[in-house]
Every structure is written in C-alpha cells, then in structure tokens.
Amino acid sequence: MRENEVSYLVRKAAYTIHMALGPGLLESVYETLLAHELRKLGLHVQTQVALPVIYDGLQLENGFRLDLVVEHKVVVELKSVETLLEVHHMQLLTYLKLSGHKLGLLINFNVPYIKSGIFRKVNGLEEQSATSAQPSASSAG
Predict the structure, then answer these.
(1) Torsion angle, CA of 10/77/117/120, rounded to 10 degrees?
(2) What are the percentages of helix, strand and coil residues in the chain, rounded to 5?
(3) Of 71-75, 118-122, 135-139, where does mean pLDDT reach its minimum?
(4) 132: burial class by Cβ within 10 Å (0-12, 13-18, 19+)?
(5) Which residues span the domain enclosing 28?
(6) Is residue 134 included in any domain, yes or no?
(7) Count of domains in the chain?
(8) Binning pLDDT at 50, 70 and 90, where does residue 139 land?
(9) Using the 8-state DSSP alphabet, how is residue 24 labeled?
(10) Which of 20, 49, 51, 52 could form a disulfide with 64 if both were Cys (CB 3.0 to 4.6 A apart)?
C-alpha cells in the first residue's frame, strides 16, 4: 500500500470518528479511536512512537513522540485545539525530516467540519500519476 492510499484511509477514519462524536474531546481520545478504526481496517498502527534526536554527536532517545505511524509510511499528528498555529505545521515537517517518512497528516479534531482540520505535508514524496492515485493529492483535506 502506498502513502497516498494510507492517507486516504486515515482521513476516512478521522471523518467517521468526527461524524460520530464531533469536536471537543481530548487529543488522547481521538488518538485511541483513530488507532482503533485503522486497526479495524487491518492496518498496522503504532502509537506514541519515540523519535530520537541526534545533534552534534548527542543523541536524545525520546526527543519527540509521533502520535501515530500507519503502515510504517504515514505520520499522523493529532490536535484538538481551537486554532492550529504555524508551529503545528512546522512540527509535523520536522517529524517527517527526522524520521525519514515522506508523508504526514496534521489533523485537528476541534473543528466544525473535519475536512477543514486535515492538512497533508510531504517530505520528498514522489506523487503518483493522476490515473493511478486513488486519493486526492491536495495540500489540505
């Protein structure tokens, strides 16, 4: 399964959860539910994945924690905040760079319509041709 196919399934699962429960819950609740929905689809999901940081010969084993890594391909950073800040977008890009993953989704569940809370970030991902890509390759949603 390619990154864009995984991304499509993550977005679909986020939509299912948001339609059922809406905004306003804790980020940890959405994380647990999203992992559950994705596992029901047969996907491999890791939660709270430690991401070491190496700088100038110093290694910090638990420099960061990735909320979800799906199918060893897509990093999912979850939020449940009133307003996403630019730093949230940059955080996901940093996670992609440090982890070597090529695709990430930033999902803010605290929005009236989940489509407006999903942002796609890439780090060197070669896009599929339009005829072979199932999901949309847009920047948002």
Answers:
(1) -70
(2) 35, 30, 35
(3) 135-139
(4) exposed
(5) 3-122
(6) no
(7) 1
(8) very low
(9) -
(10) 51
